[in-house]
Amino acid sequence: MALKTKPFDIAEHLKTAEDIRLFLQEVAATGDEADFIHALSIAARAKGMTEIAKKAGVTRASLYKSLSEDGNPRFTTISKITKALGCKLSIA
Asked: Which of 2, 46, 60, 78 is deepest in the core (most CB within 10 A)?
C-alpha cells in the first residue's frame, strides 16, 4: 500500500493573531527580505486576503501582486499589511 501525502501549508496552522505574530517574528529573525515578504503572503492567506486587503487599504489584486514571487512591495505596503495582520514593525 502506497503512502499518501499532501503538501504542507503553514497557513492552515496559523489560527490566531498570536500564531501569526510568532511566525512573522521567527521569519524576520532568521530569514531575509524575500522570506519575510513570503511569510506576509502566508499570513495574509491564513487571515483572509480580502480582509487584509481591506484593512491595508489596497485592492485584493494589488495585494496578491505585491506579495507574489515576482512582487516588489514598497515599504509602505509592507507596513500596511503588517498592521492589517495585527502586528507592528519594530527595531530591537
From this structure: 46
